[in-house]
Amino acid sequence: MSGRLGFVMLVHTALDRAAQVARFLAASGNPLVIHIDARVGAAEHGRFVQTLADLPGVRFSRRHRCEWGTWSLVAAMLTAAQTLLDAFPRVERVYTLSGACLPLRPVADLEAWLDRHPDTDFIESVNVADVNWTKGGLSEERFTLYFPIGFKRNKWLFDRLVDAQRLLRTRREVPDGLTPHIGSQWWCLTRATLNAILTDPMRPHYDGYFKRVWIPDESYFQTLVRLHARRIEGRSLTLGKFDHQGRPHVFYDDHLQLLRRSDCFMARKIWQGADRLYAHFLAPRDAPLSDAEPQPSRIDRHFARATSQRIRGRAGLYMASRFPVANRENGKTAEPYSVFQGFTEVFQDFEGWLAAVANCRVHGHLFAPHKAEFAGREKIFAGGLSDSATLRDYNPRAFLTNLLWSTRGERQCFQFGPADTQGRNLDLLRFMATDSNAQISVISGAWAVPLYRAGGDFGTLRKEAARLQRIESQMLDLLQSPEVRARIRIWTMAEFLENPAEPLHTLFDEIAPHSQARLMRIPDLVDLSGFGTFLQALRNQGMQPVLMGDFPLTPASPDPSHRMK
Amino acid sequence: MRKRWLIRARLKGRALKPVQDRTRALGPHSLLLAATLRNERARLPYFLKYYRDLGVEHFLFIDNGSDDGSCEYLAAQPDASVWSTTASYKQARFGVDWINAVLRRHAHGRWALVVDVDEFFYYPFCDTRPLRALTDWLDDAGLRSFGTLILDMYPKGPVHEHPCIEGQNPFEVASWFDSANYSITRNHQHRNLWIQGGPRARAFFAKSPRAAPALNKVPLVKWHRSYAYASSTHMLLPRGLNLTYDTLGGEKASGCLLHAKFLATLADKAREELQRGEHYAGGREYRAYAEALEDRTDLWNKWSERFINWRQLEIMGLMSKGNWA
Fold this sequence. Notes:
heterodimer; A: Spore Coat Polysaccharide Biosynthesis Protein SpsA, Chain A; 5-stranded mixed beta sheet; 5-stranded parallel beta sheet; B: alpha/beta; two-stranded antiparallel sheet; globular
């Protein structure tokens, strides 16, 4: 039983697409009133009317010049709705759509579905005091300030008028009995409700008020419906998503499956070049009636992901269209990683041992002065990173973020120390220390071990020891500063060597929580039998090695068969 | 500064002689492509096909004295306008003045794509949405420009062992790229990002990374007659057009220009360009290539990624959908 559902269609561009949709809707035997924006030229208008001339159920309403955000859109809607109710007395429901809407299911499905929900008005209508999704800063002020000109006509003047009224504390009275509500202008109302709105004796008063409200097409019916409706279902039957700036998301050919599976009745807005969508959804179908419920949630998720990518982006990514300023990165790096300072110095083959016990990629000193020591000493590593020190030092931070980005899914561990490239002003360590993905473990003073083992001219060694100690002191200061966000552990070398198993065990529980590290043998220490004497020799030369803690002249070396407890 | 480039464009633009001018046929919203070239005949058939398939409606070519038939070939295309000049490429700021002159005359109010004939524009959904879908979306969002990363593509094995035949998709041969070795800094003067890296930096500029070529480019712009490219197409004026990136952690939509530079014809090209000495910084770039390519440099390594499609580039973070879903 068709003819009881009437459509109101507002058209301003892509008239050929609107005509296709109009023809599809009309074919269901239901009437349709079209409002064509008065800005559409006479020739184009004439052609449009001509193409639909053969359809008896299609009427055209008196034309208004429509400007976004202004009363003209409500005026167009009111005129068209009145035309529809007057010309088609059998119409029981009115559905509004734009020329960029596309029906996704046969009209008969919609009719049957509406019959199952009698006397119900489908209109998104949210109390303006409760919304948080108005975009562009104006929510309540839409109703309490005056908006004599449209935003698109003169942005500057629009903003100045708002500023001036804020300054003057302008506060318009909302007419008695009205509580401002806003929502999508694509609704489906019952004849009774719509008629009550159109014939309300207070209407001239309300219209006068809404003529100076901002974006009244999103609030006129949404507010007045609260006075007259018997039962409101607060949602639009038209699927339409908005981005973070309040602009509608657009559907393209590649959304075909997504739209099909949504089971929604209508979607907007459709890109006018989406040939496949128009061909598919407007093709005559003789499928049996489907009583599936609309399921917009899948599409909601699809667009929510896009909005999140636009707003928050992917953690740890630096690229041509994402280059966050300091501390606005939403994650400085892509994945957790471990930095070891002083471990390769006190253990024999720490790298090999770590790689064997934990399931992660273990590099040497990635920032060593002569070259980047990638795992396996590869010349080129993930992402195409080169081991060239000049390339790396050109932008050490990018080197690190690139490595962590391109090895997502695999934990990276690397050695670091005061002899390595630090970037300007310890930039690299500062970056890592303020990164919550970093786990930084330091055995302070261990840089002296390679010096001790290398031997050679003592004057040179002494100088180098003084340099490294100075750098490491700065590093430790930085690691203990308040802005630190990394997991940081610092032991003096003397402290660490008292019981090396304990700290290793703690670190392991973090790097590889489920590994059997506690059963593993800890790596052998390097021979430190003369180290105390070496430190004393430095002292004798007037250099004060302090960072290794109280190191005994002849250390009692831990039991080599010691297992982690 | 911008005034200066515009005046230069006007002066240098005088050197351009129309060979075939079909710009009368342009509609108010025609999608344009502008390119400068010299002796690229073998690359042209695929280039034209690629961009016609994307939906480019008219080509604006500036031929800098080709003698291999490029000019005649292009003039014969129904959707191309061709200007020719034998003036110095270098003195026209590497063709930028010519491009500015042509865009100023013909691209005002239209979307224009400015690329070299070895650059292929990939953007999110480019396999299902034509270029017009992108420019409509940019128009709706009030955006005037769209940024890209130049992605250098290379073959597996020495470059000269893999010739690309005319009309063939160059990325069937040069199908590999570096996925994450790009270094970015911000140019505060022009507000653009300065991106360097990729195989060119790693193989030819390891000793002097600062000299490595810039890989940032803003090739797609809704042109206005007051706009100008400042230095190649890496920087635009007014500088607001260079803000194609987000600084608060979000991602703007962006694309990639797949760069088919490392193809068989290159060795000859590098030698030829070196003799002419008409390129940026005394052809330092081409000298480096010529030297390295002589000894059969292979840019490929086991970490090279094989190009599949735009989605792969998007997942790798070389381009972004932003909020265009």
